[in-house]
Amino acid sequence: MRSHIAFLGLGAMGAPIARHLATKGSETVTACDADPARLAGLDGPRLVATTDRGRIAGADLLFLCLPDGGVVEKALFGPDGAAARLAPGAIVVDLSTTTHADALRIGRALEAGGRRFLDAPVSGAPAGAEAGTLTVMCGGDADAFEAVRPLLDRFGATVLHMGPAGAGQLTKTVNNVLYDINIAALAEVLPMAVAMGLDPAQLGQVVTTGTSRSYASQYFVPRILRGEFDQGYPLAKAYKDLVSAATVAAEHGFPLPVTAAATATYQTALRQGHGDRDKGAMVLPFEALLGVKMRG
């Protein structure tokens, strides 16, 4: 078991994950974030919350939970970067959602400095992070995975080693793109049904209980019916998943026609200024086009 655990990134996902790491183990976790407001309520017997990144010096295990690959690379290798502060042979576990290419590049840079790397993005939303029931998809060295597996089990109900470096991010991309396709389908079909005279509330009951039900419909349809579009991850930030899938497809010549169609729906919502809203806001351009509202 690791003696000095550090954690960077205490947002909606990172804070509860850091809490599970500390409360379910015997090690002290040094949790860092540049925003002092995110430290509130995190201090405990084995959890030290700080804005001082210098406190992670000598850590032999570093978890990252940051917005994207650029932020991860800056945190590790930029001015005052964390990578150089880690103990020799330390393992870096990146829980962030980046890209396959990001994971390969970051892994190579860490290995060149004598550290090991696991790309380990998570799925399950903030509710799963709070409950400690996330799905964790890991790519990287199998021995490094086994070394940190007991810690991943503290916040993950499903913890999988998907293959070599980059496999975790590739798996997360697949998961997110399938989710995006589902939401895009709801966004274009539900307004059509309302335009044909179906009752929105009753329609919502069908698509959240019938054979078309999914996590996407069960999460977003009730919120669409209430006109709430600020409950999930912003469209503009989540767009990177579709870009990542398109990049992989272009590099390897994979045809992805359904993904391309869903991407066009996504892009339409972004071009109409809905980037700060969640994915349910993809319904808004279709409502405007058909002159209807999918509201209860």
UniProtKB/TrEMBL annotation:
Keyword Mitochondrion in the entry? The reply is: no
Q: Which Pfam families match?
A: NAD_binding_11, NAD_binding_2
Enumerate the transmembrane spans: none
Q: Which key words tag this protein in UniProt?
A: NAD, Oxidoreductase
| Claim: Oxidoreductase is one of the keywords in the record | yes
Sequence ranges assigned to domain 3-hydroxyisobutyrate dehydrogenase-like NAD-binding in this UniProt record: 166-283
Domain of life of the organism in this record? Bacteria
Pinpoint the 6-phosphogluconate dehydrogenase NADP-binding domain residues: 5-163
What is the name of the protein in this document? 3-hydroxyisobutyrate dehydrogenase-like beta-hydroxyacid dehydrogenase
The species this protein was found in: Methylobacterium persicinum
